[in-house]
Amino acid sequence: MAKQIIMVPNDKLCFIQTFYKVFQSWASKKFISGCVILFPIAITFYITWWFVHFVDGFFSPVYDQLGIDVFGLGFVTSITFIFLIGIFMSSWLGASVLGLGEWIIKQMPFVRHIYNASKQISSAISPDQNTQAFKEVAIIRHPRLGEYAFGFITSSVILQNFSGEEELCCVYVPTNHLYIGDIFLINTKDVIRPNLSVREGIEIVVSGGMSMPQTLSTLGSRLPLERSRSDIS
């Protein structure tokens, strides 16, 4: 018996190919959209679950030795312990003990550099406004007119010269997340202070600018770009 060959009209074949391409494009976009939505949720749950297990592991062996097997009890104990440490270190006795411990650590050649770097980073997000913490979020004109750099005000200094005194702000501009950056001494009048907290500024730096709000407003200070243009004219 001779095989029968079914011929498909060209218009139907083109319709099938077009429908397949449209469906493939639609399915790919929806799949990628699903991945984009689920990825941060999955990462958040994974890191939270890992953090709970990590913190729970500090005191859970103690409860295992006592024959107590309650999930999360070690985590609650660890959080309570950290809270009590915060209360103790806020007192005069705790500050004295901390100062003695820091003095011992600073006598160690290699360990003191790690401790100092870690302390500076933790001080930046500390609610206690000390001399080592980031004071404010700052925007400076850098490296040329029309371009701006995002940084943090760490301190202020008075520059004495022959023409008088000039108040400068020490602005730290991160170049590699928060660990490496450049320090600029900028005139106080040339520093833009946006309505952002230090923690919001850190989130913007760590996220590579993806968490930057669409609109930034200053705290009543005039933009240095406008001041420079008026000086030029």
Q: How would you describe this protein?
A:
With 233 residues, this protein is α+β, with helices and mostly antiparallel strands. It is built from 6 helices and 4 strands. Strands 1-2-3-4 form a 4-stranded antiparallel sheet, with helices on one face. The longest helix has 56 residues, at 10-65. The termini are far apart.
In short:
This protein is of the alpha+beta class and 233 residues long. The chain has six helices and four strands.
Question: Any chance you could write out the topology, listing elements then pairs?
Answer:
Blueprint (H helix, E strand, L loop, with lengths): L9 H56 L7 H17 L2 H14 L5 H14 L11 E6 L6 E14 L2 E13 L3 E8 L10 H9 L17 H9 L1
Antiparallel strand pairs: 1-2, 2-3, 3-4
Helix pairs in contact: 1-2
What is the gyration radius calculated from CA atoms?
A: 29 Å
Class computed from helices, strands and strand pairing: alpha+beta
Sequence stretches where pLDDT stays below 50 over 5 or more residues: 221-233
Q: Widest sheet: strand order?
A: 1-2-3-4
| Number of strand elements | 4
Mean pLDDT figure: 77
Strand content: 15-25%
- From N to C, what is the helix and strand string? HHHHEEEEHH
How many angstroms separate the termini? 95 Å
The share of residues in helices is 40-55%
The tally of helices reads: 6
Shape descriptor: flat
Q: Assembly type of the shown chains?
A: single chain
The largest sheet, given as strand count, sense and whether it forms a barrel, is:
4 strands, antiparallel
